[in-house]
Write a structure and sequence with these properties.
By secondary structure, this protein is mainly beta. The chain has one helix spanning 67-81, and strands at residues 9-21, 31-41, 44-52, 60-64, 92-101, 106-113, 117-125, 129-133, 143-158, 161-162, 169-172, 175-178, 180-190. 35% of the residues are buried.
Length: 194
């Protein structure tokens, strides 16, 4: 009988919802935001938002309520997902994080900093599915398991300005998905040290 326990070591658990816009079906991206709600990692718990957008002039901006968590995410995960978010020289601005709404209507994450208010929202959801990518999948040394709620509609706003664009359709395995997903119950793992 196989073990019911995944053989890997847990790196972090929480959420990593995202929105990506593209004018060419995903070949290039005009806007990319990655919102993390970390329930646990070796650096603690907290939130981080990484953004590279038309609203930031194409520059990477980072906000967090726990800078060590943001730095840990940069080093351990964003370096593999999107290296532009992993530059340790990028300042981390302090911010407060709030959730509003839900899957049954519109889900939103509100990030409030001294000089910025960022509102991310997702709506018109496709059926959810569980993403299962053990270490070694897609050439990554670490793996992830997550529940994805793909959104047909998503919005990125910074200080009242809204980024132009819409999510684009994507396939993830056999499932219909988009480039804007709530990624909840997300756990990242690495091969267990022997």
């Amino acid at each position: 009988m196989s073990s019911p326990v995944d053989p890997n070591d847990v790196m972090m658990t929480g959420e990593n919802s995202f929105i990506r816009y593209s004018a060419d079906g995903g070949k290039t991206q005009t806007d990319r935001v990655s919102h993390w709600r970390v329930l646990w990692c070796p650096a603690g718990a907290g939130h981080a938002l990484f953004a590279k957008s038309t609203l930031t002039g194409g520059a990477v901006r980072i906000w967090s309520d726990n800078a060590p968590v943001a730095r840990w995410l940069q080093k351990e995960i964003e370096s593999l997902l999107f290296p532009a978010f992993a530059d340790a020289q990028t300042p981390v601005a302090g911010a407060a994080f709030t959730r509003a709404g839900g899957i049954d209507s519109r889900a939103a994450e509100i990030v409030t900093a001294q000089d910025a208010e960022i509102v991310l929202s997702w709506e018109d959801f496709l059926p959810p599915f569980v993403l299962n990518m053990p270490p070694g999948t897609a050439g990554r040394p670490i793996g992830v398991f997550s529940t994805f709620f793909p959104a047909r509609g998503a919005r990125i706003a910074l200080n009242g300005r809204v980024a132009p664009g819409q999510p684009y359709a994507e396939k993830r395995g056999e499932r219909d998905s988009t480039s804007a997903c709530l990624a909840w119950s997300e756990t990242w793992v690495r091969p267990r040290a022997r």
